[in-house]
Design a protein that fits this description.
mainly alpha, 91 residues, 0% strand, 3 helices
Length: 91
């Protein structure tokens, strides 16, 4: 009976840890160059007016680059998790 009483809290703790780690997926890496606002970046120097084709292309390119950075960070996290599962002995 005592073992059964400990099983639920341990299962709950492990489940909550797994869910917390999933909440950080899809976020920008902390050292990302995309922390600056897209509007500020694309209008830097006053050369590009909002709504112009160059401005739209700049915002679209920044969005694509941000998405690629997020994908790379998620892939690194998945690869680390797979490595840890497949190599439990090695730190």
């Amino acid at each position: 009976m005592r073992l059964f009483a400990l099983r639920f809290p341990i299962t709950l703790a492990l489940t909550s840890l797994a869910l917390v780690s999933c909440t950080h997926r899809g976020e920008l890496p902390a050292n990302s160059a995309f922390t600056e606002d897209d509007d500020t970046f694309c209008r830097a120097g006053g050369k590009v007016a909002p709504g112009s084709p160059q401005y739209v292309a700049c915002v679209r390119d920044r969005d694509t680059q941000r998405g690629n950075a997020i994908d790379r960070a998620d892939k690194k996290q998945r690869d680390l998790g797979e490595y840890m599962l497949n190599n439990p002995v090695h730190p």
